[in-house]
Design brief:
Blueprint (H helix, E strand, L loop, with lengths): L1 H5 L4 H8 L4 E4 L5 E5 L4 E4 L8 H4 L4 E4 L10 E2 H14 L5 H4 L2 E4 L10 H16 L2 E2 L3 H5 L3 H13 L3 E3 L21 H9 L4
Antiparallel strand pairs: 1-2, 1-4, 2-3, 3-5, 6-7, 6-8
Helix pairs in contact: 4-8, 6-9
Length: 199
Amino acid sequence: MHSFVDHYLPAWFQNAVRSSRPLKVDFTDSRFVSVFPEQGRYVSNIVDWAEHSLLQVVGIEFNVLPDRLAEPDGRSLSQLRWTLLLQSLQRQPHSNDFLLSRVCLASWPSLTQLPENALVMAARLCALLARRPTTASVIPRLLGLPESQVFSMIKALSLHGHVQVSGASVTASPSEPDDEARPVASLIGRIWQRLLPQP
């Protein structure tokens, strides 16, 4: 499934996570990201991952790290992957086909892999779709959230196989859900459905 996602991720991140050894990625402005693929963790001095430069940055250096990361240091590499994916998708144009498409929930994502600032939105979105399929353009209004954030989350969930978007080219194959996919009727799904305002 990552082959669908990698298209939207910066090259420096793809190189680091595919490495057989821990790597430190040094940027030209003294920022860095140390990636530990085997442990699924990273360490960085970057605070704002929303900067456009981090998606297209060039002139960086890779250095092999000699040691493993001391547990439980570092942060979740899965959360960083989601953060970069969402930032990239927010900069993608939304076609009329996407806006008019029908969005259905196929499975719940693993909420522990999502970045904290996207967790509540993802849960509310999935809870809404668990109740009924919804037209993409209507979802931000129903959730009371910015369009750019909601649309990027829909596309990210689609790339991971968690939602099906009829008529949108971003949709991954529904027969290939993530290993972390959860059934729609899961306990967390029922809890979040209760938190949604009733129509």
